[in-house]
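Justification of resources, computational component.

The compute hours requested in this renewal are based largely on the per-chain cost of generating structure records like the one below. Each record pairs the submitted sequence with a full structure-token output. That output is archived, and it is also reused by downstream analysis tasks.
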Amino acid sequence: MPNTIVSAGSNSGICENVLKYDFSSSTTLPDTSYCDSVRWIGGLGSFDDPSLITPIYYPAPGETGTIDLGIVGYGLGPCSNDTSWMQLTVYPTTDADFSMSPNDTSCTEEVITFTGSGPAGISSWQWQFDDGNVGSGQIVTHTYSNPGTYNVMLIAGNANGCDDTTIHQRIVVDVNIDFTINPNPSCMGSSVSFEGNDFGDNITFTEWLWDFGDGNTGIGKNVSYTYNNPGNYTVSLTVCSETVNHFLEVLPTVEVNAGRDENIFENIPFDFNNASTPATDTSYYSLRWSGGLGSLNDPGIIHPVYTPAAGEFGAITFMLVAYAYAPCSNDTSYMTLNVFEAPLADFTITPGDSVCANETLSFSASSTTNIVDWLWDFGDGNTGSGQNVNHAFTAAGDYFVTLVVNNDNDCSSTVIYSVQV
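The structure output for this chain reads:
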């Protein structure tokens, strides 16, 4: 009888994720001659029917690499058996995955970065973005023009032809944003609140980016900021590719100075414009002076004129208020006006105001408000000092005698009487 002959067919390979090898797909099929029966052996997995010439082999979980599989042909009658072997190589799958940045939600026209990952040996990275566009490479970028839910697919393959397919969902939204500014206008040096509005879309998957218009920026849906300089600013909020602008007016700080304390004498109006240090102000809406028992010609101007009330002496406190534009704070400053009682110059002439030449006259001044100086001018080129003085005119004529008195507050008064000689 002829000898039993078997052939296991050609060596072959499959990818791990294929899960089975069908011998009927071999390049060279297994074959037998003069066999009573056959049986496949080898491997850690299992055959669907090891008695078939072209069975299906199922590798065991984790069984990769080269697997020796043999076919045993049992001879007819007394004839010997025959065995043939082939090698089935199970190639590991690529087991790829990918990440997205930003994460799983983004805005229309926002650039998304897709980064593939997997074991060494991956040679092909093919992307399908589910909007009709594709890409290749381990790291790719893509933008979606329309909102929707997209199934992004990565097919990663190695040199052995083993592919792995991974799908992640991408949500793309068309954002609608706005913001409010409180207060507007605002004040230099005061905190301003900016509150973003997404109209209920709960946009938390991306950053809210602020530009305050003065070179400074912020991040967050709701932020606050303080401006150090007055002016008009364009504030911008950007979320994804959407940008909204609003204008903000920052008002300057109101500052007022009522000036230095001043001294005047009674019955003399005080002009604030003539003060040694006049009052100053900046950036006010309106002004108001108040104080004293007398009257201000216009309390709403920076340099009014004050007329003391009759008998109003001593220290008078004036308050100057500069009213700011809302919502800024007003500013207040104070000064003191000291009103001193003025002396009253007067004198008597003895024996009278009509005398003979070379007759001695006595001039006696009255005393008020702590007078410290009595200065006399007799009108004939002669002068004198003191509260009481004597003088004789040597020539006939009409003379005007002048008395100037000064008190301890440096206030003065003058009186003039005529003398006939």
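The mean pLDDT is 93. Residues 317 and 336 are 5 Å apart (CA to CA).
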